[in-house]
Amino acid sequence: MKKDKLFSKKEKKVNDFTFGKETAEVFDDMLDRSIPLYRELQRMMGEIASEFAVEGTNVYDLGCSTGITINTLHNAIDKNIKFIGVDYSQAMLDKCKERLDSSNFPREYELRCADLNKGVAISNASVVVLNLTLQFVRPLYRDILMRSIYTGLNEKGCLILVEKVLGNDSTFNRLFIKFYYDMKKRNGYSEMEISQKREALENVLIPYRLDENKDLLVRNGFSYLDVFYKWYNFCGLVAIK
After folding, report:
1. How far apart are CA 27 and CA 75, in angstroms?
2. Which three-class secondary structure state does DSSP give residue 230?
3. Which CATH number applies to 21-166+206-240?
4. Are 177 and 194 spatial neighbours (Cβ–Cβ below 8 Å)?
5. pLDDT tens digit string along 90-125?
6. Would you say 204 and 16 are in contact if contact means Cβ atoms under 8 Å apart?
7. pTM value?
8. How many CA atoms within 13 Å lie on the side-chain side of 194?
9. C-alpha dist (Å) from residue 86 to 116, 130, 218
10. What are the tens digits of pLDDT across the range 164-188?
11. pLDDT band, residue 1 (cuts 50/70/90)
């Protein structure tokens, strides 16, 4: 796993964060060091997905990046299902295909290059995963995307949504962000790396509060939802159609 050093060099001007080739090369390490309890989160998503996956249906990973989650779900689900991974970055999809092919992935799968800001075609889905993806969709288009997911899910199908979230109060918000940056320091990131990445993400990653994400799900059709993962300013929701 190639080490993430994308922001280790001091830049005069920090450009917006992208999911291009350089990011794809180090993305696995970035996730492992930047997402709280990432391996346990992966295990939990697999556990939940295995309960809702239905024989002969599709399981979608929207924002599939390098295919870690697809691989997790494959190992957890023992039914005959098809995986569909969607990402707007061809570099990420290339890494995903490389991962699946190198492991002789035995399931039927399809990888689609598409921008979720422009909507997504979902059909015959028993599980849809948005793992740290919705936060990169422009707020203007999130309702449209969520409605298309709800429409494409089969009855009793589930959506697994994991997001970085804002606190409801500025005090908690500052505190949780501090704890998050402390975690990144423990995982080997320098103050400069943390600062430059924060600047790069400022106009790209737009988080909602937890209650805003819940409202988004409810107004687009989901009646049953609950929190399954929470770590300061990170949260996982599961919703059932």
Report:
1. 21
2. strand
3. 3.40.50.150
4. no
5. 999 999 999 999 999 999 999 999 999 998 999 999
6. yes
7. 0.97
8. 17
9. 8, 10, 24
10. 999 989 999 999 999 999 999 999 9
11. confident
Given a cut of 90, whether residue 6 has pLDDT beyond it is yes
Give dist(CA 45, CA 129) in Å, integer.
Answer: 9
**If we measure between CA atoms, which residue out of 15, 36, 59 comes closest to residue 235?**
36
Count of Cβ atoms closer than 10 Å to residue 226 Cβ: 10
Q: Which two tokens stand for residue 88?
A: 């707007």
Report the alpha-carbon distance of residue 240 to residue 217 in Å, rounded. 10
The residue written with tokens 């962000």 in the block is 177
Domain boundaries, the chain: 21-166+206-240
**CB-CB contact of 179 with 234 (8 Å):** no
Tell me which residue has tokens 């990973």: 61
Amino acid in the structure at residue 226: D
